[in-house]
Specification:
6 helices, 51% helix, 8% strand, mainly alpha, two-stranded antiparallel ribbon, 137 residues
């Protein structure tokens, strides 16, 4: 069907076409999303699904793998799970912040944890901590 004819047909049957598209999307959501992701990877980074590893380069977890790229240059740095990619975004790719977080966690492991800051699962029902008495009367 020539483009001109298609446009006329679409205008005449717009509501029907929209409903048909919605119905197809509902029935084939995963397929549509998968094809859209593949198209985006190809257009934006020149990658195919075969180029992307199945595990995160940082934590080794599987699941949805993101293309990590430099926002200034657009160059691909690697492939991360959504969690690791999210962390990089939160710290704005700043290695100084990441090193300070590492130092903080190392220090916290070595020092004594204050009793009322223990995970709730480790708290006893009768807490002497005034802040927690509201939760455990």
């Amino acid at each position: 069907m020539p483009v001109k004819d298609y446009k006329a047909y679409y205008q005449a049957n717009r509501e029907k076409m929209i409903e048909k598209t919605k119905k197809y999307y509902r029935k084939n959501t995963e397929l549509v999303k998968s094809k859209a992701r593949a198209r985006k990877l190809k257009e934006k980074y020149g990658l195919t699904k075969e180029n992307i590893p199945s595990n995160c380069e940082v934590c080794g977890e599987g699941g949805k793998i993101c293309v990590d790229h430099c926002h200034k240059t657009g160059q691909v740095r690697g492939f991360l799970c959504t969690s690791c990619n999210f962390v990089l975004g939160l710290v704005k790719d700043d290695t100084k912040i990441l090193l300070r977080l590492r130092s903080y966690l190392t220090k916290a492991k070595k020092s004594q944890i204050i009793e009322h800051h223990r995970p709730i699962g480790q708290l006893q029902r009768k807490s002497k901590c005034p802040q927690l008495q509201a939760f455990f009367p």
